[in-house]
Amino acid sequence: MKKITINNLSFYYESKDTMVFDRLSLEFSSEKIYALVGSNGVGKTTLLNILSGIYQPTGGTIEYDGTLYTEKVTKEKVAFIPYKTKLYPYLDVFDHIKLIAELWGIKTDYLEYKRKVLEYCNRLNLDYYNKRVESYSTGMEYKLYISLMLARDVSLVLLDEPFTMLDKKSRYLAMDLIKEKKIITIFSSHQKDIVEYLSNDI
């Protein structure tokens, strides 16, 4: 069973007067989906940014299966889906598949990765043939981003305020994809229906 362990984590942006976390300790286990719930400014997005490697903690440690949580671990084991996704407007689905495979070093399993991305796009009802991202709506771009990230062989998926730009049917299709992964999933949300349907720990 994979685990992410946070030990005495502290974090502040400019000085200790703006402390976000002070000796925070948490543990996240595989095959569970955790919802981060709370008012604005309590640190939900900050925690996701730390776990994704975007921010570095100012104190404490994070471990992945008993080993230090390094940049190599975050690149290989973590998929982060932010609130606002951004893809390249002049590239299509197949171009993005090649790009992500190159950036994340997906070589021997490239064909399987490509198959999974296209499968997820189809399950999310994304019409992608002969279309570049510049012609996508915000919801369509989000569907592609989800597919590109979930198709990777990762142990932890992080989502910040997910699915708000999707219609109701697509929202539940996306949540079902995440449930099928059976890995550690952590997301922040103010949407009660998303929290109740997707999470099994709050």
Summarize, please:
With 202 residues, this protein is an alpha/beta fold. It is 37% helix and 23% strand.
Question: What are its keywords?
Answer:
202 residues; single chain; 23% strand; 7 helices; 4-stranded antiparallel β-sheet; 4-stranded parallel β-sheet
Write the layout of secondary structure elements.
Elements: E1 3-12, E2 19-29, E3 33-36, H1 44-52, E4 59-64, E5 67-68, H2 71-77, E6 78-81, H3 93-103, H4 110-123, H5 138-150, E7 156-160, H6 168-181, E8 184-188, H7 192-198
Strand composition percent:
15-25%
Mean pLDDT across every amino acid position = 93
Over all CA atoms, what is the radius of gyration?
17 Å
Major beta sheet summary:
4 strands, antiparallel
The amount of helix comes to 25-40%
Please report the total strand number as a whole number: 8
Helix tally equals: 7
Strand order of the largest sheet: 2-1-4-5
SSE sequence, one letter per element: EEEHEEHEHHHEHEH
Poorly predicted segments: none
First CA to last CA: what distance? 20 Å
Helix/strand structural class = alpha/beta
User: Overall 3D geometry?
Assistant: globular
